[in-house]
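Service request form, structural biology core

Requester: graduate student, group of Dr. S.
Request type: structure prediction, single chain
Budget code: on file
Notes: please return the result as structure tokens.

Sequence provided:
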Amino acid sequence: MRSTRRCSRNGCPRQAVATLTYVYNESTAVVGPLAAFAEPHTYDLCEPHARSLTAPRGWEVVRHEGAFDPPPPTTDDLVALAEAVREAARPAPRPPADDLPDPHRGQQAGRRGHLRVIPPGR
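Core staff response, request fulfilled:
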């Protein structure tokens, strides 16, 4: 399952909509639409961080002027959503055999939360 890409800024939980790339030999920071794939030498940014990015003194920032739209859902996202719905709709698993009544003792042994009930005489 593919998860959504998050903003690379520490502590930011928002979804990434832009990619920051540094061009070191030209002293330029380029902020553009979200790249198709996450690369180790780029940074994914949410819209507020993409709009407010500043560069070090002497550097130029080249920024995409259009809207930073979130990426459309992919087939992987839709399949993951369908699987999550199917998983939630499955019936609860049956209890293990040792949680069922003990026909030989006439007493019940079972689990209740984190405690186990043991019939007398065992």
